[in-house]
Specification:
InterPro entries: Hexamer_Tyr-coord_heme_pr_HTHP, HTHP_sf
Shape: flat
Structural class: mainly alpha
Order of helices and strands: HHHH
Largest sheet: none
Helix content: 55-70%
Protein name: Peroxidase
Radius of gyration: 16 Å
Organism: Vibrio caribbeanicus ATCC BAA-2122
Pfam family, one: HTHP
Number of helices: 4
Length: 82
């Protein structure tokens, strides 16, 4: 995979940050297993397994934590003034 898709962790909103976290998680799977055919073949093995779904949620949460930190938790000057 040579396409550069991740150019920044900066986002305007937490929602955009969360969506980026999901994309980062999905791209991690694509880099780990580049064959779409194999990914589709393996999907039934994990898409109904609660343990795997929890693990996927954890990966997204870790990515979101990284993005939130990179964005200063979307704090503004207004937020500092209370």
């Amino acid at each position: 995979m040579s396409d550069q898709w991740l150019t920044t962790l900066k986002t305007d909103t937490p929602q955009q940050g969360y969506e980026l976290a999901i994309k980062m998680s999905r791209m991690g799977v694509k880099y780990t297993q580049p064959s779409e055919e194999i990914r589709e073949k393996l999907r039934p093995n994990y898409d109904e397994d609660t343990g795997n779904l929890i693990a996927i949620s954890h990966v997204i949460a870790v990515n979101f934590q990284t993005i939130a930190s990179a964005n200063g938790y979307w704090k503004t000057e207004r937020a500092y003034r209370g």
